[in-house]
Design goal:
heterodimer, A: SH3 type barrels, OB fold (Dihydrolipoamide Acetyltransferase, E2P), 3 domains, five-stranded antiparallel sheet, 16 strands, B: alpha+beta, BirA Bifunctional Protein, domain 2, nine-stranded mixed sheet, 12 strands, 40% helix, globular
Chain lengths: 187, 306
């Protein structure tokens, strides 16, 4: 159990049987009055956000969350299949659950799968992933349009802007937090 | 954490506060920070020190001096309140308190205006601080004209999403003040929010013409509470009853029955008419330095230590 004084940004608590993460936190206390704990919370399953104000005597249950290292195997339509590298157990998450993370998943990639009880609800990726460029227009040296980036597609189907010198077949590093190009990687 | 410029400002502010009160004939006192028994206030959680406590405010000892010696007094000291952490709260913070004999809360409101004007004007005259004051809230908002006095009832009527009596009954008074009302207080010039419901002022005297209201006020500047003052309750029997209620609440919270502060109550019998106020100096520094967090205006905050 947590009490209101444990509340802080990043804390994960159980509300209405769903795990929630505190994304914003503010303490306030008018005069000699009651302490107020103002939180913005995000439902870790549905992603919906809301604000609420708690008092000193409010109590919170800890969300039963656990991370396990798993390997991405393949996707079949909207189902993304993963395997536990310890016990070879397999499971899948849907594209909706994974959100933008589907842009960076390649076969055999190791990720951390977040479980709420026995139920997988999210994954966390490495901050940087290396992906192969599958489609890029050649760099027109005479191009005087003044743009310093061009659009390309990587093996997952994700499209992003990169510097003009990046070519088809190159491997590039992408920051999974922003989805942006970082650098070209030598094999 | 403060750099050398901030340390100079903090020192200058303390020096000016002292000179303001010395000029007015106040006596500076320094009372024990660590005490065996604090005045019972159920909304404050004290920090223990061996079997004693660190003060949550210097009120107890200062009122005893006031009662025994009948002299206007002031003090700048550290106060400690457990579990208070946030953009405007530190568990250890700096309080300025002053007490006036033969006065009520109206005199304290006048004091606030003279003090803040004196501090800002004096800082403006120093080359080192002139630009900083100009960039701060005080640079664009003149404070030398009359300050707005707004009653709690009027503030509720204007901004609250719930009527005052309903807020009190559902114990949401503080929440409404913090969420609905505070952001509108002291926006263009300082606001003195006054006449609190009687039950929101355990140590304050009730108004003679309306026993539902207490002679208590708070000073707000730029949506931030800076000071809390009131006409002191000097009836020791009435004070004993209110303390007993607070002791009940603390017992419910902590499961411990604290003793009645008998020495305080004995001295209170000697006090006739008086008023006292607590003023958060760190918060005034926040306004002067345009700081968004109180941790920026102290020499070391909790995160800087250890």
């Amino acid at each position: 159990m947590f009490s209101a004084s444990d509340l802080r940004k990043g804390l994960k608590i159980l509300i209405d049987n769903d795990p929630h993460i505190i994304v914003d936190f503010e303490f306030s206390k008018p005069g000699k009055g009651q302490a107020l704990y103002r939180c913005k919370l995000k439902n870790m399953i549905t992603g919906s956000q809301f604000s609420n104000t708690y008092r000193s005597n409010d109590k919170f249950e800890k969300a039963d969350l656990e991370e396990r290292t798993m390997q991405f195997l393949y996707n079949q339509g909207d189902e993304y299949h993963f395997m536990d590298t310890q016990n070879y157990e397999q499971l899948f998450l849907t594209a909706e659950q994974l959100g933008d993370n589907v842009n960076y998943l390649v076969d055999n990639m190791e990720v951390e799968v977040l479980f709420f009880g026995s139920r997988p609800i999210d994954i966390s990726l490495p901050i940087f992933v290396n992906l192969t460029v599958t489609q890029a227009d050649p760099w027109a040296r005479g191009d005087t349009s003044g743009t310093d980036t061009k659009p390309i597609t990587v093996e997952t189907g994700y499209q992003l802007q990169v510097p003009p010198f990046v070519e088809e077949g190159d491997k590039i590093q992408i920051d999974t937090r922003s989805g942006e190009y970082v650098t070209r990687v030598k094999e | 954490m403060l750099d050398i410029h901030g340390l100079h400002l903090r020192a200058a502010l303390f020096r000016l506060v002292r000179s303001f009160f010395h000029q007015q004939g106040f006596l500076e006192v320094d009372t024990p920070i660590r005490q065996p028994l604090l005045l019972p206030e159920s909304n404050l959680v004290p920090i223990g020190s061996s079997a004693w406590f660190l003060q949550t405010s210097p009120e107890q000892c200062m009122k005893r001096i006031l009662a025994r010696e009948g002299h206007n007094i002031f003090q700048i000291c550290s106060c400690f309140r457990a579990e208070e952490r946030g953009a405007r709260h530190l568990e250890e913070f700096t309080m300025l308190e002053w007490y006036r004999i033969e006065a009520d809360y109206s005199a304290l409101m006048d004091d606030c205006r003279s003090l803040v004007n004196y501090l800002i004007e004096s800082l403006r005259q120093q080359n080192r601080f002139r630009d900083m004051v100009a960039r701060s809230w005080f640079g664009t908002n003149p404070i030398d004209s009359e300050w707005e006095r707004l009653t709690v009832a009027d503030a509720f009527a204007r901004w609250a999403t719930m009527p005052l009596d309903k807020a009190l009954d559902s114990e949401r008074f503080d929440e409404i003040i913090a969420l609905d009302i505070e952001p509108y207080l002291g926006v263009q010039s300082p606001t003195l929010l006054c006449d609190y419901p009687a039950r929101c002022a355990s140590l304050a005297r009730l108004k003679k013409d309306d026993a539902n209201l207490a002679e208590r006020f708070e000073l707000y500047i730029d949506g931030m509470e800076l000071a809390n003052g009131f006409s002191e309750l000097t009836d020791s029997n009435e004070q004993r009853i209110r303390f007993a209620e607070e002791l009940d609440r603390i017992e419910q919270r902590d499961g411990i029955r604290m003793p009645m502060p008998e020495k305080f109550l004995a001295d209170l019998e000697r006090l006739d008419r008086a008023a006292g106020i607590a003023f958060g100096l760190d918060r005034l520094l926040m306004l002067l330095m345009s700081a968004t967090s109180i941790a920026e205006v102290v020499s070391f905050s909790a995160d800087d230590l250890g």
